[in-house]
């Protein structure tokens, strides 16, 4: 239940008797009138005895006198509409599984396809089974800390971050609003979680100044030295927890300087369009998405909704490519699936506009299919973040604050903060298999300032998968297969700082 707890911000519950009362009493003392406790169906205490929901309810009612209700989710928590992340994840893992079968030899061990960061990996099946058995053995021997480590880095990371956020909260009476900037050096050296309230936009607490940038998913945090001395500052771009920052970080997946759109709402709109197309046979929709010159949104959405083509700026195309797409669409209309969906990034081409594509498809498909256009525009923005977005945004926020606290300790000398090193201004983001900090000075050479995006886009490898799923005849020689990684205790240990 670790990821679920991170997404909801729930009071922490362990198997040690008495801990629930302390946690609930503290949250009530801060003014919270609603508390939620999540219990896994196989929860046990440190003595191996089961912890049931009725037991926890009786404990809270008898010792604290709080009105308590019990809800057993059961099979209600199954099913539901898959999010855009779920669709892309299943597609990537499915393609990797098929490629693993095609590349297998008689000597190749059976493997499990997984995802590490944004990279597919292959894990030997028997090693995974062995680790699973060791987890159960550790639980039977009451070696709970070891069992958590054997669950893997993601599980251990979620659990540690949740404990950090659940316990080290800053009470209201200890917050001094409008404090002088000179106190940042001494007060920022307190536990990292105490700095988390400063992430809220528009709030100035404990010497941390948080502003409202153009991107609502980031808070600009500046740290100043003593006001009587020369002002030396460091600036951070810190993702605000529990927002869909994973889909569109600034200068990482779609440029900057504008309110970045999010992916989850685009598939929903495309689903409705495809449903409309299914009611009328032989109809093709041409949908324009936002994103500036960056085609990340169009590409990932194309995979999530099963688009027939996605035109982006990073993958140049000409009239011959358009001709091949139209011919492919014509052949598709002869099958049982007599509908089509084409995505176009808003700035993918100067002359091949949405209107041009509409006229081309309408003219070449005359008598076979008809066309409609739809410009999503600002309809694709906003929406409620998914559980993955909440979890990932929270983890990025915690990692940013831990990094910031460590830097402040390193540069604090005699009442002053010297933040003049290149690594004092960084951007946090996912780099292949790990979350990393990149100094802004180093990002300059890797950034295309004219088009407001990175010079090299990691997601371009997904273009091949998009065409393959759309049943184009392509050469898979350029497909980069996942590496075979062994599962050992060392690989399962959590990496430092996250």
End-to-end distance? 19 Å
Total domains, how many?
4
- Point out poorly predicted stretches: 1-19, 174-261
For the CA atoms, what is the radius of gyration? 26 Å
Strand ordering within the main sheet: 3-4-5-6
Instruction: Characterize the overall form.
Output: globular
Largest sheet: 4 strands, antiparallel
Task: Please identify the oligomeric state.
Answer: single chain
Helices, by number, come to: 16
Report the strand count.
17
The helix content is 25-40%
Mean pLDDT level: 76
Instruction: Return the structural class.
Output: alpha/beta
Beta fraction: 5-15%
Task: Briefly summarize what is shown.
This protein is α/β, with parallel strands linked by helices and 498 residues long.
Question: Can you walk me through this structure?
Answer:
This protein is an alpha/beta fold. The chain folds into four domains: 2-76, 3-Layer(aba) Sandwich (Rossmann fold); 86-163 and 483-492, Rossmann fold; 172-256 and 385-456, no CATH class; 265-380, Phosphofructokinase domain (Rossmann fold, 3-Layer(aba) Sandwich). The chain contains 16 helices and 17 strands. The chain has helices spanning 2-8, 19-29, 53-64, 84-103, 125-140, 144-150, 153-167, 184-187, 265-279, 296-305, 319-332, 354-364, 387-411, 440-443, 462-469, 489-492; strands spanning 111-116, 119-124, 204-205, 208-210, 218-223, 234-239, 283-289, 309-311, 339-345, 370-375, 412-413, 416-417, 426-431, 434-439, 447-448, 453-454, 483-484. Strands 3-4-5-6 form a four-stranded antiparallel beta sheet, covered by helices on one side. Strands 8-9-7-10 form a four-stranded parallel beta sheet, with helices on both faces. A three-stranded mixed beta sheet has the order 1-2-17. β1 and β2 (119-124) form a beta hairpin. α4 crosses α10 (296-305). The longest helix is centred in the last third of the chain and has 25 residues, at 387-411. The chain is globular. The protein starts with a helix and ends in a 6-residue tail after the last helix. 31% of the residues are buried.
